[in-house]
């Protein structure tokens, strides 16, 4: 069990909410009880919404290095705690931290543009048309798969391994294992290839074969780049974020529960 973070008795909190009416109403109730601070001046960020809004918060404010405590108001809340208006300061003090390290995506497009982005869940490549994508896979500069014919392929972090990766029949990865999941999406050939679990510091490079006839897009969480010819992915060396979870329902417990549910 990871010990709680040393947060002061009266932490400065920035209350952030999705645009949904329910989230905005919850923020108003919390502001009636607690003072609000700008994210740059806060000790803790409280995110109100679903997992999508949590990812937006991490992308927008992750560089500040502030811990984030989420409360679920969206349709999906794997990265969130349950919503309650009472005892917020006590919950924050008792919360257990989960330190996440995102993936860096660097994309080359057909037009010669270079685009970079971060992914806290996954980087996915997907075919843009009815025709299957043809992709080669290199690991640390060595070609490991000459040609993967598929609808797509993704690389997931441990925190993101329960999301799109799990739906694509990829493995759930425990936190702190320093690995990532490489998972094909509807692979046609090699038909029996089910992907791989790789060390987190592996540099993964996808090259799109015949990109003009068989165009492919690349997406880091929700940031999509179309008409890509090459995508490099590696774990970030200088960026981490800390999520805070109630002890009775921390992220490790949620990942275990996900593997033993039949729903």
Report on the structure:
- The active site is at residue 51.
- The chain has 263 residues and is an alpha+beta fold.
- It has two domains: 13-101 and 240-259, 3-Layer(aba) Sandwich (Rossmann fold), CATH 3.40.50.10330; 103-235, Tumour Suppressor Smad4 (Sandwich).
- It has helices spanning 21-31, 51-61, 88-94, 164-167, 251-259; strands spanning 13-17, 44-49, 68-72, 96-100, 103-109, 114-119, 122-127, 133-139, 142-150, 152-156, 179-185, 196-199, 204-208, 216-220, 223-225, 228-235, 241-245.
- It has a six-stranded antiparallel beta sheet with strand order 6-5-16-13-8-9, with no helix packed on it. A six-stranded antiparallel beta sheet has the order 12-11-10-7-14-15, with no helix packed on it. It has a five-stranded mixed beta sheet with strand order 1-2-3-17-4, with helices on both faces.
- The protein is elongated.
- It starts with 12 loop residues before the first strand and ends with a helix.
- The model has no long low-confidence stretch (mean pLDDT 93).
């Amino acid at each position: 069990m990871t010990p709680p973070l040393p947060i002061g008795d009266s932490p400065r909190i920035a209350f952030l909410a999705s645009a949904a009416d329910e989230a905005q109403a919850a923020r108003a109730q919390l502001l009636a009880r607690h003072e609000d601070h700008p994210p740059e001046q806060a000790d803790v960020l409280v995110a109100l919404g679903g997992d999508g809004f949590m990812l937006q918060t991490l992308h927008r404010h992750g560089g500040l290095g502030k811990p984030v405590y989420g409360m679920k108001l969206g349709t999906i809340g794997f990265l969130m705690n349950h919503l309650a208006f009472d005892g917020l300061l006590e919950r924050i003090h008792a919360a257990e931290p989960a330190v996440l390290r995102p993936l860096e995506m660097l994309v080359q497009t057909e037009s010669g543009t270079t685009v970079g982005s971060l992914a806290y869940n996954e980087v996915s490549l997907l075919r843009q048309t009815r025709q299957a994508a043809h992709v080669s896979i290199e690991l640390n500069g060595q070609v490991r798969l000459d040609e993967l014919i598929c609808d797509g392929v993704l690389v997931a972090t441990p925190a993101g391994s329960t999301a799109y990766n799990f739906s694509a029949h990829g493995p759930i990865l425990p936190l702190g294992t320093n690995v990532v999941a490489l998972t094909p999406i509807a692979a046609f050939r090699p038909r029996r290839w089910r992907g791989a679990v790789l060390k987190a510091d592996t540099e993964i490079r996808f090259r799109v074969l015949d990109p003009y006839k068989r165009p492919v897009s690349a997406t880091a969480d929700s940031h999509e780049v179309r008409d890509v010819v090459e995508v490099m992915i590696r774990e970030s060396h200088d960026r981490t974020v800390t999520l805070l979870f109630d002890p009775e329902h921390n992220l490790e417990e949620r990942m275990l529960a996900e593997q033993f549910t039949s729903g």
